[in-house]
Amino acid sequence: MRWFGAGPGGAGEDGAPDERAGLVTVYGSEDGPAAGERPPTAGTAYAAAPLGGAALGTHPAPSRAIPRSALRTVGAGACLTPRHVLTCAHVVNLAVGRDKLAYAHPGAVELTVGFPGADGVARSTARLTHWIPPRAEQSPERHLAVPHGARRWRGDLAVLELTCDPPPGVAPLRWAPMTGSQSVRARYGTGDPEHTAYGRVASFEDGIGYVHGGPTGAAIRGGYSGGPVWSVADQRAVGLVAAMVTHGAGPYDPTMTTRLSWSLSWQAVKDELTAAGADGLLPECADQVHRQRAPDRLREDLRLLLDRALPDEAHVRKHATRFAERCLLPHPEDGSLPSLEEWTEVLLTVERAVPALAEVLAPYDPAHARKLRDLARLTPRLTAHWMSPWEERALLQLLDTLPDDVRRRVPEATRSAFPYPLPDEVVDATGLSDPKVFAAYTRRWVAALECRAGDGRQVPAGTPGVPALLRAVEFVAALSNPLDRRTELRQWNERMAAHLGIDGATLADRRADADQWAQAAVSAPPRLVVELTGGTGHGRTRRYDAGFWTDVGDGRLQPAAGAGADPLAPAEIVKILHKHLDRLAGASVGQAWPTVELIVEHGDLEIDLDSLGAADAGPLPPKVVGTRYPMVLRCPSIRRLADSDGVWRRRWRALGRKSAMRLDDTHDDPGRVAGLLDEDLDASVVVVGTPHGTRARTATWCLACGVPVLLWDRAEHAPDGVDTFRLEPPSRVHRLPEAVREYRAKARSSPDEHRARPVLVWDDPGRPLPLTAHLTDPSERAEL
Q1: pLDDT digits over 467-517, tens only?
Q2: Domain ranges of the chain
Q3: Of 740, 736, 739, nearest to 685 (Cα)?
Q4: Torsional sign, CA 311, 312, 313, 315
Q5: From the DSSP assignment, how many helices (H) and strands (E) are in the chain?
Q6: Region 23-37+45-281: CATH code
Q7: What global pTM score does this model have?
Q8: What ranges does the record give for the region Disordered, renumbered to this chain (predicted)?
């Protein structure tokens, strides 16, 4: 028996926890309504979960007593990381009272889970973070629901994040590839030994393994789904239980389906998680572990450091328990001690183990603690995780307490901290006002920046570089107000810099960069949002129902006064615009200048409010709204009609990475335009140069394909007239609304030289729309 990993669930021969230590029970309410169970049909595979699932809302936090009689086991899960649980999507469906194979995302659900391998009875809650729905097996697409009567399916995975640390005795499983003829076992969700089902993988192909159960003992049935399929020989999990196979008239009969089930292989699970953007949660596979066990320089360096830092039994006894607790590793309390060989293995295979040991040693042996930090920071196999678990948790807790106005600007601060492009998970600012969305974002943010070794700036000779994460934290801290948040983030940075041996002057230099940026930067520009609906008439005599909202830059839209309930003509709308914009401009600070967002229907994409002056100007020069303020269009109704919100957000995240796509007179067919855009799902800016009279129609096709930024010329002149207005390079595309405003001003002063009359659609997912823009039924709007 090995010391680390030898918890209540037992351990494998190499010290890895067995499946009970990583098994999770997924509960539903005992008295919940049935989940819409479909009747069995001949030759159909059914999810191995209890019939008639349970409706489940948010259960009480772990600190409150949850009566055992109020819960029922609907399935199982497997610990993927110390805070993440992998299970089947149909187990989540059953837990929340839906049809087992329901495809749609269940929303922000929170489930009650249990830990059979914990020390004593333990339950917690876990929130859904990744949803990979069950989908049709043979479809080349990834968005087709499982048809009725299907024998098997794809996808069917969900990742849950625990709302608190797991109890002692619980540990992430190790994984190995599934192969044919493996002897395996699976446990019921509660982990009861008498319900352990044994069998073998009789056939394995295309990511799915069919398991034939043993002739005696328990058989896989309801309540096993989502639990690990455990290879007895490898002492590793090799897949997840997915479904048992029912019998009927054909193609299966009772003699063929007795104790027959099928499972998702670890290879298929890895592929699905990677495609869903959850590859950062994947643990190392057994083949990688075996390669790490081969003699190598890192192993030798670690063993030498341990020999010197833990020279005798007293030192090992002093630090072993504290180290295990920091790494969330189970450990015996019988007075036994780990061997240095086992400790070396843990440092090589357990995430953040090296910095955790450095953290434990630092108060007593700072020299060896520094050497361990250097290994974690400089060794390619370790650099993705150079923070200890406690240090990572402290940073995440600080970020989670940031005020709402700072949360929305974290992507902006991060972009400003680095001159090079950053991954989507860092720059995506969608929905960050929601605390749950922001909590998930900060975890992606930390993971993406921690693996970047340096911030690209020079440091004094002989001193370590500044990790990218520390520079980003300085920029976020510079935004933070009240000052206590700024102080806490900077203190965290200072502690980490001291641990890593970073020169104090170097960190001060990064802090000065951040302060300089924060003093020059401003919050998101204030804006006036105008929604125009129900247009009647033609041209400048057309009248609209108009709604007005103001946003001072904090993302909160407040209704603004209009002109009553009567429809308004364009000139009347412009007059109201100027009244609100003048107030916003007077209240703006620094360079934050108000923008105008017009929400229009697809038939009004060429509305020319930007060129109209305020009525009744008298002898004074007319104020033209589009030359004084950036004015952009948004048309959410097309996106929602085409169900293109997902690709719209993806394209926005890619903004600035590529040059604009240009459409000309050859793009005269919606299929041709859609095909071109589907070839490149990162195309985010399109310049429409089709013949005059067709540009708004072509723009509508692009909006249906989720394009967030569109530019075209509404003027009646040669088709190449739009070329008189050139886009900025991709890295400066975020200036496009201001660049269009400047061009409109030049066109007003020099119309012969600047002939284009640009129309700009700028549909930023990070800038919320008024609620009415989400409604399409006029009766709903009236009721609201």
Answers
A1: 899 999 999 999 886 667 889 999 999 999 988 888 888 889 889 988 888
A2: 23-37+45-281, 295-378, 389-520, 526-635+763-784, 643-760
A3: 736
A4: negative
A5: 25, 22
A6: 2.40.10.120
A7: 0.47
A8: 744-784
